[in-house]
Amino acid sequence: MPRISSPAIAAAGLVGGYAVARWTKKRPLGGAVLAVAGGVAAREWQQVGGVKASVGLTTAYVAAFAGSHPLAKKIGAWPAVFSVAGAVAAASWAVTREKG
């Protein structure tokens, strides 16, 4: 069975978490999507890149989520979410591309 790449999982978690929270108007449900995807991505990062990669990329994932809030005030919600999702996906790809 083919694996889904960790950059795609991380980006989908950030975008999907926001989308679920916005469209259902239930922030905890969006948070659950964000957390599950983050956990799956962290497991992939650890398997492919080791503990250091997993800790670093998980930190970036959480920082991206937090950073999207003030960024949204400047550029809008969706552009902020897509920007941080792209940044985390790029970081994930950069850290794990040689190992996966």
Provide an overview of this structure.
With 100 residues, the protein is mainly α. Helix content is 87%, strand content 0%. The chain contains four helices and no strands. Helix 1 (6-24) packs antiparallel against helix 2, helix 2 runs antiparallel to helix 3 and helix 3 (51-75) runs antiparallel to helix 4 (77-96).
Descriptive labels:
100 residues; mainly alpha; 4 helices
Would you summarize the structure shown here?
The protein has helices at residues 6-24, 27-49, 51-75, 77-96. It is mainly alpha-helical and 100 residues long.
Q: Roughly what is the average pLDDT, rounded to an integer?
A: 94
How do the SSEs run, as a string of H and E?
HHHH
User: Beta-strand percentage?
Assistant: under 5%
Q: Would you count the extended β strands for me?
A: 0
Which ranges are low-confidence, i.e. pLDDT below 50, for 5 or more consecutive residues? none
Major beta sheet, specifics? none
Total count of helical runs of at least 4 residues: 4
- Name the structural class: mainly alpha
Level of helix content?
A: over 70%
What is the radius of gyration computed over CA atoms, rounded to a whole number of angstroms?
13 Å
State the end-to-end CA separation.
15 Å
Shape: globular
